[in-house]
């Protein structure tokens, strides 16, 4: 009861804090969902407003890298490091969150107190829970990420946070790695890629004197977006920014697209929206106030035509993400996720040990070779063994495009299976080159020499090199290598946890345990009887791991079947052409 009262008090303080800072809950309320989700946004009596605006938050309330650089406590230290390129914008955000969590009189306390204290991503797994991921891509990725974060904490964060707290008059608080890990998880689970109006970011651009780079600095993207494809209330794609980059004193500040500057940040209130594949809302930025009446604001907009039932959760989409990405970044998975995918890669370090590695490396570079590919689940709809009838036949957005099946000599015919091949040609081109035999390598050289001349008057284009490689090699070698890679992946997945049937059995048992009386779940003896239901209910993290790895096994098996079938067809056609 005390915990519930304390949670209610925290929520009230947060809602008051939002109101004081100019946020307006016009058609929704923020409240606790459950132990898994934490907080959420729910419709209120006013959710049927004609303009569909549910929540408005001034952008001045957003936590962005610019705010950190202007902060009275952190600004001076951060500007110096940022100018020298020692840290990136995400480091600034994580440092800010770490410090504000520890500050005794932080003005952000009502907001930070509402955030989760632990998370469901693998960085927070116990040792036993992490073992459930052995054999998957996430297992090694988690180990590397945790090692990297620990190194960053010990190398930069720990002493810097202590110094800043002392400057703030606090010599007693102790910072821990968990504080920094918490800040990192808050950023990745809640940050949005915000299209800020140029005039908001640079109200007096001509008077800016600081030589500060604010460009996006990391490879990954916090894909929670606005209402464009993959930028739609967390339904975001990695935005392809075009246009001019802003420079001040010769240093690039950040990417600019017309009147928009893309910045990663946290927007209190909006960031309490949870994910659903069928989003009921999106978020937008109102630069002029023409929609909300609040210039420079972000607002939550209803995406449903009918009015919301009262107390219905309002969800946005985090994007078309597979379970690997959802678990790694957000700490949850979706069973039977329609957007699941399988990552297959050829290890770069292995190229050095293959025959004719130097020549092949040059060919790979000339073709801008992709050493890995993401095999989306929907690709299987176009293959030889579709799970069901293809959906949206007119929208072959995930269909592999064959670009290199061209023969200038006429000796190699376009394969009969080309329209059923589900594997991206960019990756097959890489595998063709790696699997190339000595006679095929010689033939590629001869074909390219015919194009550019013996003196090498010009360099062959990427398309010409790809065409030469395909004509010399065909698909058999690449498909055999792909089959081998998928076999290795399946072996790794099954080594520690068995087949997908084993995972299914564990999940079915969990479903039964969940439905058992609580005394069974605790493992107590009831009426002198104990059966399998006495097992403790598995943790949410373990359940997520099993769902994720089972999906990986299912996709590996399906794509392996496609690869083996395509290989047999390719070998048959090669044999027919030779006879």
Automatic annotation (TrEMBL):
InterPro entries: Rubisco_LSMT_subst-bd_sf (IPR036464), SET_dom_sf (IPR046341), SETD3_SETD6_MTase (IPR050600). The keyword S-adenosyl-L-methionine applies. GO terms for biological process: methylation. Keywords: Methyltransferase, S-adenosyl-L-methionine, Transferase. The keyword Transferase applies. SUPFAM superfamilies: SET domain. GO terms for molecular function: protein-lysine N-methyltransferase activity. It comes from the Eukaryota. This is SET domain-containing protein. It comes from Pelargonium echinatum.
